[in-house]
Amino acid sequence: MADKSAAQDYAQILKSADLSKEINPLIDHIDDMLMSRLEEFETLLANVRAESNGIMGNHVSNIISFSDDFAELRTRIDNLEEFVGVVNANLNEVERSVDVAEQELSVTDYSLRGLLLKPLKAKLSPTDASDQTPKSNLSAEGDFQPVPIFKSDNYFGPAKDNFETSS
């Protein structure tokens, strides 16, 4: 009987409890939170759209307008690479010319390494006349012949006088 009495008490409590009064405020609060999150998401999405439209409007049109100049830029880069190659070749020729001049003038290396190792190498290596006759920097008359190097006007155009005063 105690079980029947307890069951009736629980049934009475459930009948007297109005679940809609207790759950509806909870549901309303959850709905409000979801709506505010949805509004925040919509605002964020609108900001992203506006930013991407701004980027598309400004930067993409600038890139497209630069495409005409892009061919010129590629040509200038190719010309610069060619110029660097010519300068490198000229530098190698000048270094070779300096080596020949040092050998013709019997200039020695005055560093510690040169002072110690050069005499030893000279004694140890056999002297061969064909190895020691490099191309000379001197003409038949005995005048110095400089190595021909690039002319900057060929690559950059004639020099302009940038110091003109405007009145």
UniProtKB/TrEMBL annotation:
Q: Which GO terms describe its cellular component?
A: BLOC-1 complex
Can you tell me which residues the record assigns to a coiled coil? none
User: Which domain of life does the UniProt lineage start with?
Assistant: Eukaryota
Feature: compositional bias, Polar residues:
127-139
- Region listing for Disordered, in residue ranges: 125-167
What's this protein's name? Biogenesis of lysosome-related organelles complex 1 subunit 4
